[in-house]
Amino acid sequence: MSENQDPINILDSEIPPDCEILHHFSQCVNACMRRCGFTRQGLARRMNEALKVEVVEVDEGKLNKWFAPSQPASMPIQYLPALCWAIKSVEPANVLLMPLMYSASDERAKKLQEASECEVQMRELKDKRESILEEVKIKT
Description:
Layout: H1 22-36, H2 40-51, H3 60-66, H4 80-87, H5 91-97, H6 107-139
Helix pairs in contact: 1-5, 2-4
């Protein structure tokens, strides 16, 4: 890509992305469920906690229906943050964003990276200041 070309944003493209991801999404969720260390009943409990509901919204039966390849039912999208928290992974969100070439970002990691960059800049400025002061001492 040349310097004067802007990268193409897929959201501005006239060609639609391939968004047939339900099977891949279900596979990802099932894999995350196996790795997280909770039973489906435990995951349902965690999701309900995250949804802050008084009446049970998610149960083991719904989880089985939502993520079985042969079932037509899908999890309501507004439950995605609760699911990610319950399984301790944002992988399912990343699968949903893949066709758009985006991924879920970790704001905490971004802030830590920014703080690290500030630390480097502070050291560089301190070195520069000391160098300037050293020059002043030599000239006087």
